[in-house]
Amino acid sequence: MSDDNDYFIGYAAETPARDRRFMLRLGLSLTLGCGALGAGLAAFQRQPGNGTWDVEDRQWQGVVHADPFPMLRTRDVDGTVRSLWLVCPFKCGVRTIVSAYDGQAVTLRGSLIARDGFYMLAAAEGSDWIAPASSTAEPALGLPAAESLERVTLVGEILDMKCFAGAMRPSTGKPHKACASLCIRGGVPPALFARDRRGAYRPLLLVDENGEAHSPEPLLPLVADPVRIEGQLLRRKDTLFLSSPIADIRRT
């Protein structure tokens, strides 16, 4: 075909030097720009936290309590009394099972989930993960009384404590909304994830105005969205609670 034909597309034997320089500069600019954009976006993401889940089932001893949420009160290796909150291996609570042993000394099997001084035990699979212990309940492992601290108004996000403690990353925000809703509906304790006076994020277990567990359904529309809660701050030894009626929880 002749070069004079209007429909002929010619090809140069070698890319012109000016075009090569342009393509090289464009490629380098795009590479560096994408890298900088990725680093910038990553810097503004909330950290997923340092929670861990040791999935090996171990044996634990202590006294269980069913309310406001199922827990095992036990002694650490240094003798310190700790509260280990109890959940099932999946997206559910264990209140019905624990209620049968409320206030009793038990032996149970489960795996430890831990984050920033908060501890949970995921019960081992099967129906024989909990059994009465041969010893009597130690008084020091009884349910600690709620200590009333102060009235507060806090802004934060409602999430489930199992995922926050280390079962899921991320455990906050829109990507985690469906998971948190399933967990809370299933009986996993809900919490408000908010900043304290030092600016650090921490969870406060949510209970109603009587200090009891909320019914899950009214909380579900508010999960993983920014909310403002007016309530009473309570302490039960090593755990903080925020006591508030549903009416005082509002989306911001």
Shape: elongated
Topology order in helix (H) and strand (E) letters: HEEEHEEEEHHEEHEEE
User: Any idea what the radius of gyration is?
Assistant: 27 Å
Which segments are poorly predicted (pLDDT under 50) over 5 or more consecutive residues?
none
Strand order of the largest sheet: 1-2-3-5-4
Structural class: alpha+beta
- How far the N terminus sits from the C terminus, by CA atoms, comes to 71 Å
The percent range for strand residues is 35-45%
Helix content: 10-25%
The count of DSSP E runs of length 2 or more, i.e. the number of strands, is 12
Main pleated-sheet profile: 5 strands, mixed, barrel
In round numbers, the mean pLDDT is 90
Q: What is the overall number of helices?
A: 5
Descriptive notes:
- This protein is of the alpha+beta class.
- The chain is 21% helix and 37% strand.
- It contains 5 helices and 12 strands.
- It has helices at 17-43, 95-99, 161-167, 177-186, 216-219; strands at 52-65, 71-75, 81-87, 105-115, 118-123, 130-132, 147-160, 190-195, 201-207, 226-236, 239-243, 249-251.
- The strands form 2 sheets. Strands 1-2-3-5-4 form a 5-stranded mixed beta barrel. A 5-stranded mixed beta barrel has the order 7-8-9-11-10.
- The protein is elongated, with a radius of gyration of 27 Å.
- The protein starts with 16 loop residues before the first helix and ends with a strand.
